[in-house]
Design brief:
Structural class of chain B: alpha/beta
CATH topology of the largest domain in chain B: Rossmann fold
Radius of gyration of chain B: 19 Å
CATH class of the largest domain in chain B: Alpha Beta
Radius of gyration of chain A: 24 Å
Oligomer: heterodimer
CATH class of chain A: Mainly Alpha
Order of helices and strands of chain A: HHHHHEHHHHEHHHHHH
Strand order of the largest sheet of chain A: 1-2
Distance between the termini of chain A: 86 Å
Order of helices and strands of chain B: EEEHEEEHHHHEHEHEEHH
Number of strands of chain B: 10
Keywords (chain B): ATP-binding, Nucleotide-binding, Transport
Protein name (chain B): ABC transporter ATP-binding protein
Structural class of chain A: mainly alpha
CATH superfamily of the largest domain in chain B: P-loop containing nucleotide triphosphate hydrolases
Organism (chain B): Plantactinospora mayteni
GO molecular function (chain B): ATP binding
Helix content of chain A: over 70%
Shape of chain B: globular
Largest sheet of chain B: 6 strands, mixed
Membrane topology (chain A): Multi-pass membrane protein
Strand order of the largest sheet of chain B: 6-7-8-3-9-10
Largest sheet of chain A: 2 strands, antiparallel
Bound molecules: adenosine-5'-triphosphate, magnesium ion
CATH topology of chain A: ABC transporter involved in vitamin B12 uptake, BtuC
Number of helices of chain B: 9
Helix content of chain B: 25-40%
Shape of chain A: globular
CATH architecture of chain A: Orthogonal Bundle
Number of domains of chain A: 1
Chain lengths: 318, 267
Amino acid sequence: MMDFYDSNLVLIQATCTGLILALSIQVPLRMGVFSFAGAGSYGIGAYLAAILVIEQEVSAFVAIGAAMLATAVIGLLLGLLIFKLNGLYLAMATVAFDLIIGVITINGGETTGGSTGLYGVITDFTMGQMFALTVIVLALVALSEVGRTGRRVDAVRDDPELALSMGISLRRYRLTAFVVSGALGGLAGAMNVLVRSAIGPLDIGFGLIVLGLTMIIVGGSRSWKGAVIGAIIFTWLPDILTAIGEWQELVYGIIVALAAVFLPRGIYGVLVDLNKWLRRRRRERRDPPPAVAAEQAGDIDPKPGDVREFALNEETVP
Amino acid sequence: MSAQPVERTSTPVLELRDLAVHFGGVRAVDGVSMKLMPGLIYGIIGPNGSGKSTLLGAITRLTRMTRGELLFDGASYAHVPPSRLARLRVARTFQMVRLLPDLNVRANIQIGADSRTTSDDRTGSRPSWFERLRGPAVSPAVVDAIRRTRLGGFESYYPSELSYGTQRRVEVARALAMDPRLLLLDEPTAGMNQSERAEISGLLRDLRDEGLTQLLVEHDVQMMMDTCDYVFAMNSGQLIAEGEPGEVVRNPAVQEAYLGRKWGRDA
Ligand SMILES: Nc1ncnc2c1ncn2[C@@H]1O[C@H](COP(=O)(O)OP(=O)(O)OP(=O)(O)O)[C@@H](O)[C@H]1O
Ligand SMILES: [Mg+2]
């Protein structure tokens, strides 16, 4: 057990940061906000934590806290700027945001270390602390998926107009999505730089969007459990696939494509559907649906809102 | 059943003044004024496309109005954002069933009750952030709404597992769970059989007897005559008649609006 842990330390760390990066894209997506700004926040969080540690010699927790605070505020500002955009336009705007962050890190001179990036980011950050933070984040995200908040998030995503008529402020939920996404991205980036002790422009490119998105598409986009499944698969799979050498990328691509086509709600979605189906079967065997018989007996109105109904019913007028 | 009681003592729950909604050149609603007094069921009839649903959309602030004034309890709310209307306790159902596919019947209804558990609830102590986040497991309002709409036994079903008529009842239950002061219903019995319709009609009358003001859009004239205290007839975005249900239905202008439309369509 200890051997496994030691020899796979890097992968275990990458699973945690990958998971939180995936959540930074999944949380807004669950609210119907197609924002990939989490990837840009990851870059900001990583660089900010690195700079604070190198120049101010702050502790790991101060670096992480500052990174999350900064990315949450930037998320809010970005949100205020673009939350009214829809679907694809919003997605494009957030991708642009990510690319701008990339450009800034390359051209940041000594502060960001240019194309080499920053290294020597050494703190007392431990694996235990990393696990603890990851678990806390998972618990909070899980909490947002159940009860009142979970229902309201469902409404905001699936039927915004209905959500409004149920007293839900879309603006508030969408802005929250940006803030949470920013903080999660910042956390993932900061933790990554603290365990890896270095960060460069190549670590925060477009690839982060692809990685996070792949994790939640294959794992499942509606639940933190899907993000966990995806994070584990796509952190460990490339490592396993190195065994087959040059075919690696092809196999990877095929898996993603198959999942996108055949599992629209990801692996976790399949488990949910299976569970629903089993429950229904058990229920139907125990007792048939209460009013189905009555409904089948009655004559169902042929077409809702047909004008002819009025003419037919006219005889009933006294 | 008498005609609209003139405003003797109380202010109308809802008042519309010269309300208009234009979509480009289409005058979907064009200068409608009405007053709804407390504790009565009002009906709107009118042929397809006469602007009934658009009118409900404007009343609930989901559809942008072109001109006019909206008053709830005598106070203008023409500039209040739609998400605030739940606080005024205005509830509605939609012409097309709009249930959330990933939530079961109980959770779909609970969404209505959720709107009542916000921090501005003056009764009782302020809920903690955790209580507000989680909400109650099952509110009494939900239990009550399920009982009244006879959805008992369906609580753990998902919308896709229900017949159309049952889905509609879930919509009504969700609106009731908001504990409304004004209930707007857009063809709540479309797709239901006769006995289900009679049941809904009975439910609406019970609610009226408890003091709930309602505005009901329906095509089924018999149902409107059985249910409503007062009926408005619309055509091409305008009111063409109003009064006691039987009177309005016999009104020549109303009959022509329907029949003319029918012939025009068949031609
Ligand atoms: N969003 C929209 N954009 C443009 N035109 C619209 C829009 N919504 C409604 N209309 C038009 O406004 C008119 C009134 O439509 P509305 O749905 O209010 O009628 P209705 O009385 O509810 O009809 P039905 O009995 O078929 O439900 C119709 O001509 C319709 O085509
Ligand atoms: Mg309509």
